[in-house]
Write a structure and sequence with these properties.
- With 81 residues, the protein is of the alpha+beta class.
- Helices cover 37% and strands 19% of the residues.
- It has 3 helices and 4 strands.
- The strands form 2 sheets. Strands 1-2 form a two-stranded antiparallel ribbon. A two-stranded antiparallel ribbon has the order 3-4.
Length: 81
């Protein structure tokens, strides 16, 4: 799995575990919609805008698209003994 900017997820997850955090999920903030050449045009149309904006919600937790996002927030919790 790859996270933002082509960074492998393994070292990131290891760093988080070393910090005492248990990762619940990684989320893609920006999906592949930014790759659409006519994105600005699509966002001007109300129906198409809703369609384009709905895609990230469906894809945000898909491991296969994490590498396409410029930002990948981590949802984690502190591990207590």
């Amino acid at each position: 799995m790859v996270v933002s900017g082509g960074v492998p997820a393994g070292p990131v997850l290891t760093d988080l575990a070393d910090a005492g955090l248990q990762v619940r999920t990684l989320l893609a903030v920006e999906g592949p919609a930014e790759l659409l050449a006519n994105l600005g045009e699509l966002l001007q149309d109300e129906v198409r805008c809703e369609q384009v904006m709905g895609v990230p919600q469906q894809m945000e937790a898909q491991p296969s698209v994490l590498g396409t996002s410029a930002h990948v927030p981590v949802v984690a919790q502190v591990v207590t003994c």
